From TrEMBL:
It comes from the Bacteria. SUPFAM superfamilies: SAICAR synthase-like. PANTHER family: MULTIFUNCTIONAL PROTEIN ADE2, SI:DKEY-6E2.2. Pathway: Purine metabolism; IMP biosynthesis via de novo pathway; 5-amino-1-(5-phospho-D-ribosyl)imidazole-4-carboxamide from 5-amino-1-(5-phospho-D-ribosyl)imidazole-4-carboxylate: step 1/2. This is Phosphoribosylaminoimidazole-succinocarboxamide synthase. It comes from Sulfoacidibacillus ferrooxidans. The gene is purC.
Length: 236
């Protein structure tokens, strides 16, 4: 399938038109950013790993009845997806205190939460993707309350599926960010990607970080972490 005109370029992906009116081709890049674009760099073969990792996760979710934008993997860097209108609300699901949650609430990083936490963030790079609540989202007409409830329920379902499956691979799902979109038919589906760029993965035995925190915190062995996640979910 041939790529047409590029319609969008983000920090980690390019999106192209294609022969199908109902689909886009997504190309995964090696570019890496952190702290809302303040830190920039490149991770060797990151796009290849994220494409493959997202493919596995979308397949897992499909097996459990979760509807996503994923259609097919076209090449080592390219994925065919349904055309959707992205809902400008990022849904973050947290099982363990880490990152901004730990610093914001004074929690010890690595502390398991008493219950899973779901947070909403406004998808706006210029504003730094601020934390918002249901009322903000409704007042800004980002989504209806019913749609927000659907996003939260779906995020928790996805969390249960991925948490248990990753546990069998010796990986702790600490937290992760999801984005959703609306198809031409009005169906809300999971969109974007699920990868070490958008999730925190720790080794269950050692708590070694196997995600983009290695880039954020200059821990080294960033490519190896992405490669390790792909190896575990494909082969173990």
């Amino acid at each position: 399938m041939q790529k047409g005109q590029m319609v969008y370029e983000g920090k980690a992906k390019r999106v192209y038109e294609c022969e199908r009116d109902d689909a886009y081709i997504v190309e995964f890049k090696d570019d890496a950013t952190a702290f809302n674009g303040q830190k920039k760099g490149s991770i060797t073969k990151k796009g290849v790993y994220n494409n493959a990792i997202s493919t596995v996760f979308f397949d897992w979710l499909k097996q459990e009845g979760i509807v996503t934008h994923y259609i097919d993997t076209l090449s080592e860097r390219e994925m065919l997806v349904k055309r959707v209108r992205i809902i400008p609300v990022e849904v973050v699901t947290r099982n363990v205190a880490a990152g901004t949650l730990a610093s914001r609430l004074g929690l010890i990083e690595g502390e398991k939460l008493k219950q899973t936490v779901v947070e909403f963030y406004l998808k706006n790079d210029e504003l730094g993707d601020p934390l918002i609540n249901h009322s903000h989202a409704v007042a800004l007409e980002l989504a209806t309350r019913e749609e927000l409830d659907h996003l939260e329920r779906t995020a928790l379902m996805i969390n249960d599926i991925l948490y248990e499956r990753l546990h069998t691979k010796g990986v702790l799902l600490v937290d992760f960010k999801l984005e959703f979109g609306v198809t031409a038919e009005g169906e809300i589906v999971l969109a974007d990607e699920i990868s070490p760029d958008t999730c925190r993965f720790w080794d269950e035995q050692t708590n070694e970080k196997l995600d983009k925190d290695r880039f954020r915190r200059d821990l080294g062995r960033v490519e190896e972490a992405y490669q390790e996640i792909l190896h575990r979910i494909q082969n173990k």
